[in-house]
Amino acid sequence: MSALVSEVGTRTAAAAHNLVKVYGKGDTAVRALDGVSVAFQAGRFTAIMGPSGSGKSTLMHCLAGLDTVDGGAIHVGQTEITKLNDKDLTKLRRDRVGFVFQAFNLLPTLTAEQNILLGLELAGRKPDKEWFDTIVDVLGLRDRLTHRPTELSGGQQQRVACARALVARPEVIFADEPTGNLDSRSGAEVLDFLRMSVRKMGQTVIMVTHDPVAASYADRVVLLADGRLAGEIHQPTTESVVNALTHLGA
Amino acid sequence: MLKTILAGLRARTARLVLSSIAIALGVAFVTGTLVLGDAVGEQTRDNFARSARNVDAAVHTAENSPNREDGIPADFLQKIRNTPGVEGADSREFGSAALLSGEGKARNALVQPLPTTEKLRDFNLKDGKFPVKADEAAIDVKTAQIAKLKVGDKLKLLDKDNAEHAFTIVGTYQQGASSISMSGSDHVVVSPEGLRTVIPDQRVYEIVAVAKAGVTQQQLVADITKAIGPGYQVQTGEELTQATLAQVGDAAGEIKTFLLAFAAISLVVAGMVIYNTFTILVAQRTKELALLRCVGANRSQVFRSVLAEALFMGLAASVLGLLGGIGVSAGLQTFISTFGGPSGGDDNPIRLPISWVTIAAGFGVGVVVTVLSAVLPARRATRVAPVAALRSQPDSSDDVARTGKVRIAVATLIALVGGAAVYFGLQQEKEEPAMFITGGATMVLLLAVLLLGPLYVPLVNRLFGKALRGVPAKLASANAGRNPKRTAATTAALMIGVTIVAMVAVVAGSGRATMNEQVDKRFPADYAVKSNVYSQPLSPKFTEDLAKVRNVAQIAPELRAFGESPKLEYADVTGYPTEALGSLVRPDLAAGTLTGLKDGEIAMREKEAKTAGVAIGSTVPISGKDLKVVALIKDNSYGTGIVTLKTAESILKEPVKGYQNVLVKLAPGTDITQARADLERFIATSPVAVLDSAAETKAELNSQIDQILLFIWALVGLALIIALFGIANTLTLSVLERTRESALLRALGLTRGQLRQMLVVESILMALIGAVVGVLLGAGFGWLLVEAISNSEFTISFSIPFGQIGIMLGLAVVAAVIAAALPARRAARNSVVAGMAEA
Ligand SMILES: Nc1ncnc2c1ncn2[C@@H]1O[C@H](COP(=O)(O)OP(=O)(O)OP(=O)(O)O)[C@@H](O)[C@H]1O
Ligand SMILES: [Mg+2]
């Protein structure tokens, strides 16, 4: 298993090259991303950090093909997604990418189980029953499967979202502040799970976070400031992250 | 607070515009119907009053005078003209004659002399001039249209000996509505001398006069009474107008009742759409209202702000709706005058009377319904703890609260009342009360069904959902089922419309099927030869010759005779040759036998026999003869009963001139086309005879039914438009509400097309729920009505017009697709990231 992990660890799961994203026009134009070049290795857990408004969410949206860019290129695996049209982008998201958002991850009309399987159904793929059971058991969702989102706690909802992202075995999972709405215990559960999915299952996870503790779960932290890359930390600890952020003035 | 309200109005423009349109449409619908009702009433009154226009005094034969039949003596007109104080006087008379217009058959025409006093002409000249010379004529515009005649053409009138009298058409005129113009005949005006040449012995029943300046109507009446002596009724012009209008009241009242019933329905439909829209609107703002509460606004401030907003919107939209309603009314009037509705198809100017009632109803619907629709959800919103509301997700258990016990109890109670009323209606023997009571009762039942909507709508939705394949369709079904109350309210409007159309379609369809059956059964003859002109029956000679036409096996002339009976209100019998009874004439028998009916015997209508208190074996006196009752028949199409030709002749006061109708049976195995050609060739020898077959009779009856249906479809079409707008509105609002959800789905890989498909399916589901439940209800209610109208004498067999109902369901689906088009576009256009950012 560890051999496999080190082998895929050298491969690039997603990369941005000289990425530019501008919001608005003229005087009010904001360069949310101002020439960002960064690569994310497969089978790694990477955290993106930076002060509020530094462009973290924007970077993630662009990487995941949710938003268009104004300059530069993005690759997911071998595919240059900045060249794809809406239809192919949708297919990419459906088949190769997973998401966990800060809030509102689930469709209120569907049960937990239906929510978990939604992505696969959209892709018209059959779920791997064993894999589904493993995920559900690891996340402790077994007795919550028939519940609707309104009947679940915030932590449970985020775990359902994680399960949905994992069940399709996507190339990359993007998570934008997945623990932002959770208390520290529920947050730790979700982070533990994300880290485990990387270590044990070889999953690639890219996560935006504000929380140094959350970042310490990652293998590497990428720092952003004012839409530019502002350094990175390997094997981060809570202290090293806090230090780096203080330097950035966040 | 005012600032917050205004800012709020600006910020939510899209939603507000949608709800305003809903309100405006509702108001337009209600006011449109009311304006139309007033317009029809005004127009009818106007038309009728035209016959009393400028009249200062009117002379009639007295109500109970013994020589009423003879009319007013001929010399009275001159006497009245000579009376001091009379500026001019004219007789109001008309006679019936056959009109020949170039090619084709004679048509029945009512011929009136042109009043010499200009003020007394109750018709308005359209083209040309009025006839002056004895060989000039003017025709009614409708007659001109139907008979394809124009100024300068020639027309011929036949006198009762079939002699032709030629006239040149010198003008056309617009007929005022009256008992004369309402009869479907053609109308011709000639000079008084012209009339004498065609109808020399026309009796006069009314003379009208104009007073000289300075003479009062009372004075004039007194003078005329003195001049002509007693025994006649002399009215002032004012009295005549009142009497005429009293008659109109009945005719116009029927249309008005119909339109009012329709306005009530439209009010309910509009109310539902407005209520639903506003409920969603306020539900969406629950968070915003809670935030206001959090920053310190108190409960009543929040409440008042919602109310003020609703009031403002309601007022603005009502004004728009009122204007729209006037437009709707104008449109409907054009429609009616184009296709011929209850107003008789005269080309009348479009009238837009706006009464206080209309304005009050318009604003009532617009403002009151809007405010009420806002109050209920706003109250709910202010009751929720602010923090809880801030956290709430759309369609959390709060707004989707279960169908209340109270609602179920109330609905059950209403259903019981409706059920009892239906039972009562079914017991009625008379057709009209049975129809009205049962009809009203079905509407009560409909109300109960609507109230219970949140109970069964999710079930129906699940049923339909089972049939759906594919993720977008399944998501659509889940969406339609997420808020049963909302879905129920959305579909309710459509349900009402469809229920009513289906009901009318079923009743009309059943009536049509029954009529066709009856035509088949009662019309065993292959053809009937009829006279097109009432005053020109088919002569006995013609009838004899008809029997000699090749392949004609048997003929049966029909003679209708009007007599009197001390035991009956009317006593009109239909005579046939004995040998035709049981073969060419086959009525529905209740008792006895018809075959071999002898002179002096009668096969009496069962109902009349009951009234007269006679049974088989006893006798009934008609015009001084005691007829022996030998059979009882159920049909009402033979008057009091069937007798032999001889008996009918003896009841007739004057000698037989001819027959209105002759039944013809062909020899077995005759080639139909050959026989028809032979008959047509023979019939061409008579100017008035026309050939009628069972198929043509059916077509004629069916076209009458179709005309009624057309009118109802037009009105109900409007209700459907509103209902579908309701669906579009609900859908648009839920799309706005579900922006994040849509974005999430897009992020997870739902393509734009699939997102659109999801919304279209959702819309179709809602429309189908409304339409299918509506069709089922309508068919059931239609069945009840058919049962209610049927009685011992007249049975309607229930039949469902599947074609029309299929068309309706198809239309509902098409309209649902259209309704979903905009919201779907909107949802698909939204970018994923922007959608996710939406609070
Ligand atoms: N839709 C938008 N329109 C205009 N400007 C935007 C938009 N979205 C983001 N921005 C701007 O782009 C910059 C980067 O925004 P972004 O959301 O990526 O920041 P972030 O690092 O995720 O911040 P946070 O930590 O607060 O989530 C900010 O200055 C923001 O104001
Ligand atoms: Mg962010």
UniProtKB/TrEMBL annotation, chain A:
CDD domains: ABC_MJ0796_LolCDE_FtsE (cd03255). InterPro entries: AAA+_ATPase (IPR003593), ABC_transporter-like_ATP-bd (IPR003439), ABC_transpr_LolD-like (IPR015854), MacB-like_ATP-bd (IPR017911), P-loop_NTPase (IPR027417). GO terms for molecular function: ATP binding. Pfam families: ABC_tran. The keyword Nucleotide-binding applies. Keywords: ATP-binding, Nucleotide-binding, Transport. Gene3D superfamilies: P-loop containing nucleotide triphosphate hydrolases. Residues 14-245 form the ABC transporter domain. It comes from the Bacteria. This is ABC transporter ATP-binding protein. It comes from Lentzea pudingi.
TrEMBL record, chain B:
It is found in: Cell membrane. It is a multi-pass membrane protein. The keyword Transmembrane helix applies. Keywords: Cell membrane, Membrane, Transmembrane, Transmembrane helix. The chain crosses the membrane at residues 258-283, 310-336, 356-376, 406-424, 436-459, 492-511, 708-736, 764-786, 798-822. InterPro entries: ABC3_permease_C (IPR003838), MacB_PCD (IPR025857), Macrolide_Exporter_MacB (IPR050250). Residues 17-226, 487-681 form the MacB-like periplasmic core domain. Its main location: membrane. Pfam families: FtsX, MacB_PCD. Residues 261-384, 714-830 form the ABC3 transporter permease C-terminal domain. Belongs to the ABC-4 integral membrane protein family. PANTHER family: ABC TRANSPORTER PERMEASE YTRF, MEMBRANE COMPONENT OF TRANSPORTER-RELATED. This is Membrane protein. It comes from Lentzea pudingi.
